[in-house]
């Protein structure tokens, strides 16, 4: 696609800003935590800015229109023990990685923040522990004056704990809380967390190996005061591992995990309709003679609550052939009934595994994005290298996966668990939301999961112009650019003949914010700038807005995103 001359300069400025305006952060190492006396755990420490020296973060985030573009570097240095990503209502993104700190592996969790759709990233929080910490999971919840970032992680103190660090989205008011802690001899090895929309109710399910019991259990615990205290620590299944949990709506919560069946593992599903106060009977989603493991579940806040689309992916290991595939099942009635398993990626030449799911709503449809790893080699050290693929489908046709795309520019690491390698998020786009991904990659063929990258496409397509002076042949409303934008954006439209033209801005409630054009115009192509202000000259808040063109009998509406 050719870029018009009038917009080459704009893209060149964007490129320069990505190259030269990326923040460069250097920091000194924190002091080691003070040892606690007796059997007490040593304190974990949270910091806003005391970071070990690492290479500059951010940069490289110039996106090709509607193509998975140049990956932005979030951080450099080892990624050990897991990654996570979340976003808030203004589409500020928070990426998390476990890493080496003080020369010790998996002793730190670093949180990075992006306010420009992943193009650049800045250090936000640092968690330091005297114990090994793994499997970070970040959630962001906003309700009225409550605007919280929840950072869960597994800490290897005693026989394993699940802990929570909670702070406000501006980084203030940080506190640590114990979530799950078992008696001596019981070992917690894995967990998953979810929340309701407001963040008032949090649910954690975890895998625990009880003393003297060779089979792991799945247990759940919950909080109804934003993580300050936890209760109802209950047994969900006496045979389960690698649980994953997702919240739906009005108390509906979905849980999947692997369970042993003879000599192999199968996938089990349970549903709670009361915020995890109790769990329904188990449903076996897959039963065969092979190992099925690392399930992931995703659902959406949907009404009525008993008609939600729920997706579950899992690794399917053909033990005799050594081949691993990604399979999935789905439900159209909130987990009451399930489809038969379907192969999502089942090459006989390569291993496909470690799927992650993100979902969002588009009018009356539920859209699901999936990412998974494709491992091309089975010999050391090349078996540690993968490529990352993504595709999407919707509730209108759940078996029709579209736009299968390889997204990683770097040598992605390899693991059967997506929480260690690749995690998805949602990005605003000009009409719909699209997925973006944080992933761990290797700068060389061997070594740790070094460096953290972001990839996504979310910027507006640049439209080609016709011959100079040529009149348009039809009415059309063009995509605004840039999109997302701050502080202003340009909206173009074409009218093939003279008529009265009205161009208006609306918020998500359908309320008119601003009239940009309301006059008779001659045929031609036109552009108008919106500065993010309403009719009274007040700046409007960050969020999604719609612009509507009415010209003679033609009407068209498109979406744009303002990020302040």
List its salient traits:
564 residues; mainly beta; Neuraminidase; Immunoglobulin-like; 2 domains; nine-stranded antiparallel sheet; five-stranded antiparallel sheet; 1 helix; globular; disordered N terminus
Task: Give an overview in words.
This protein has 564 residues and is mostly beta strands. The protein has two domains: 5-34 and 41-456, Neuraminidase (6 Propeller); 476-562, Immunoglobulin-like (Sandwich). 3% of the residues lie in helices and 52% in strands. The protein contains one helix and 37 strands. Strands 2, 23, 24, 25, 26, 27, 28, 29 and 30 form a nine-stranded antiparallel beta sheet that branches. Strand 23 and strand 24 form a beta hairpin. The longest helix has 16 residues, at 5-20. It is globular and about 85 Å long. The protein starts with a helix and ends with a strand.
Secondary structure layout plus pairing:
Blueprint: H1 5-20, E1 45-47, E2 72-79, E3 83-87, E4 93-101, E5 104-114, E6 122-128, E7 133-143, E8 146-155, E9 161-168, E10 175-181, E11 187-195, E12 202-209, E13 217-223, E14 231-237, E15 241-247, E16 253-261, E17 264-272, E18 283-286, E19 291-298, E20 310-318, E21 323-331, E22 342-345, E23 351-362, E24 365-375, E25 385-394, E26 397-406, E27 411-413, E28 422-428, E29 433-442, E30 449-456, E31 476-477, E32 489-495, E33 499-507, E34 512-521, E35 524-530, E36 543-551, E37 554-562
Antiparallel strand pairs: 1-6, 2-30, 3-4, 4-5, 5-6, 7-8, 8-9, 9-10, 11-12, 12-13, 13-14, 15-16, 16-17, 17-18, 19-20, 20-21, 21-22, 23-24, 24-25, 25-26, 25-27, 27-29, 28-29, 29-30, 31-32, 32-35, 33-34, 33-36, 36-37
């Amino acid at each position: 696609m050719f870029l018009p001359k009038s917009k080459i300069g704009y893209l060149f400025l964007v490129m320069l800003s990505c190259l030269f305006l990326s923040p460069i952060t250097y920091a000194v190492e924190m002091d080691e935590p003070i040892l606690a006396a007796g059997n007490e755990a040593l304190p974990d420490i949270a910091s806003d800015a005391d970071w070990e020296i690492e290479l500059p973060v951010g940069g490289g985030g110039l996106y090709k229109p509607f193509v998975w573009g140049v990956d932005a570097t979030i951080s450099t240095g080892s990624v050990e023990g897991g990654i996570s990503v979340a976003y808030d209502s203004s589409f500020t993104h928070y990426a998390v990685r476990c890493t080496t700190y003080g020369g010790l592996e998996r002793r730190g969790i670093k949180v990075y923040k992006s306010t420009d759709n992943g193009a650049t990233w800045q250090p936000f929080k640092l968690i330091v522990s005297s114990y090994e910490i793994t499997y970070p999971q970040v959630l962001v919840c906003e309700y009225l004056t409550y605007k919280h970032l929840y950072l869960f992680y597994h800490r290897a103190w005693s026989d394993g704990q699940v802990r929570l660090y909670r702070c406000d989205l501006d980084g203030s008011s940080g506190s640590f809380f114990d979530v799950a802690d078992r008696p001596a001899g019981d070992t917690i090895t894995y967990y998953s967390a979810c929340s309701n929309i407001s963040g008032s109710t949090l649910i954690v399910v975890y895998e625990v190996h009880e003393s003297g019991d060779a089979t792991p259990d799945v247990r759940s615990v919950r909080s109804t005061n934003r993580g300050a205290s936890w209760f109802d620590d209950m047994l969900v299944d006496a045979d389960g591992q690698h649980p994953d949990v997702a919240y739906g709506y009005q108390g509906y919560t979905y849980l999947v995990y692997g369970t042993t069946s003879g000599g192999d593992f199968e996938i089990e599903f349970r549903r709670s309709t009361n915020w995890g106060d109790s769990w329904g009977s188990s449903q076996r989603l897959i039963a065969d003679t092979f190992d099925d493991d690392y399930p992931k579940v995703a659902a959406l806040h949907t009404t009525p609550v008993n008609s939600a689309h729920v997706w579950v992916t899992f690794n399917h290991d053909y033990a005799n052939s050594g081949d691993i595939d990604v399979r999935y099942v789905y439900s159209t009635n909130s987990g009451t009934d399930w489809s038969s398993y379907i192969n999502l990626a089942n090459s006989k030449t390569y291993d496909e595994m470690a799927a992650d799911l993100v979902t969002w709503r588009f009018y009356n449809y539920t859209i699901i994005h999936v990412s998974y790893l494709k491992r091309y080699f089975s010999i050391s050290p090349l078996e540690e290298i993968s490529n990352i693929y993504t595709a999407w489908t919707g509730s209108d046709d759940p078996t029709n996966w579209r736009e299968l795309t390889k997204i990683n520019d770097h040598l992605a690491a390899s693991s059967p668990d997506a929480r260690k390698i690749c995690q998805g998020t949602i990005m605003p786009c000009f009409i719909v939301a699209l997925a973006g991904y944080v992933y761990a990659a290797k700068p060389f063929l061997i070594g740790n999961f070094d460096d953290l990258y972001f990839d996504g496409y979310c910027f507006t397509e640049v439209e080609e112009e016709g011959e100079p002076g040529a009149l348009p042949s039809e009415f059309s409303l063009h995509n605004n650019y840039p999109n997302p934008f701050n502080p202003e954006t340009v909206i173009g439209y074409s009218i093939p003949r003279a008529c009265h033209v009205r161009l208006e801005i609306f918020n998500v409630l359908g309320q008119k914010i601003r009239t940009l054009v309301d006059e008779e115009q001659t045929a031609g192509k036109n552009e108008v700038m919106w500065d993010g202000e309403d009719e009274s000259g007040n700046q409007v808040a960050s969020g999604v807005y719609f612009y509507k063109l009415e010209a003679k009998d033609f009407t068209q509406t498109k979406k744009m995103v303002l990020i302040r």
